[in-house]
Amino acid sequence: MPSASTVKRTLQDRLEYVEDHLFDHRLEGSRIALSMDCWTSPQRHAFLGILAYFIDKDWCLREALIGFEPLHGSHTGAELAKVMWKVLCRHKIEKSVHTATTDNAGNNKTLVAGINEFVKSALGDTNFITDKIEKVPCLAHVIQLALKELLGSIRLTPTNSELKTFWNEQQDLEELRQDLLETSIMVTLAKVSL
User: Which residue from 165, 159, 152, 194 is spatially nearest to 180, judged by alpha carbons?
Assistant: First the structure.
């Protein structure tokens, strides 16, 4: 049975190998898109997760977790940019990133601006316009915010005044179908638009 230190050393060696060869199969000259988000555990430990998306030599879309970095101190955009820059440099992709998809938190705008400052200083002013990382808002987050706003403005009240204690499956399913037809999202949206 190997010791704990042997297992730890073996895992560390394997991790370093995987990280060193993660982008070996990337199509030459292809750009990398990132998505990232901050997460806090129930024990109040904060992390920045970073995913990379790229096209490999076989023209297949690849996705890789390139960083799940612990965060300490305040989560300002400038501090997050430093953490992200270390991850990009560790993987030697700091000149290949094209976009960064984030949610709408205010610090993410500062994060992308900070990363662009690091890229600008690494590349010099000559290529900065073509190599600037663009911030892309997360569509799922935008939809979630819109639905939250829509549903938050709708006030629903129950139409029945009695509590059912007996379930007649056939009859109740028919009533449910009728209720759904009368209160479908289209009816709701028509009422909201008036």
Answer: 159
53 and 100 fall within a common domain = yes
Q: How would you write 18-80 as a 3-class SS string? A: HHHHCCCCECCCCCEEEEEEEEECCCCCEEEEEEEEEEECCCCEEEEEEEEEEECCCCCHHHH
pTM strictly above 0.85: no
- Strands of 81-138, DSSP E: 97-102, 134-137
For residue 32, is it within any domain? yes
Please tell me the distance from the alpha carbon of residue 124 to that of residue 102, in angstroms, as a whole number.
Answer: 26
Reported as a single tens digit per residue, the pLDDT across 22-48 is: 888 888 888 999 999 988 899 999 999
**By residue range, what is the domain housing residue 71?**
4-146
What are 100's two structure tokens?
A: 């960064």
Q: Give the whole-angstrom CA distance, residue 68 versus residue 37.
A: 10
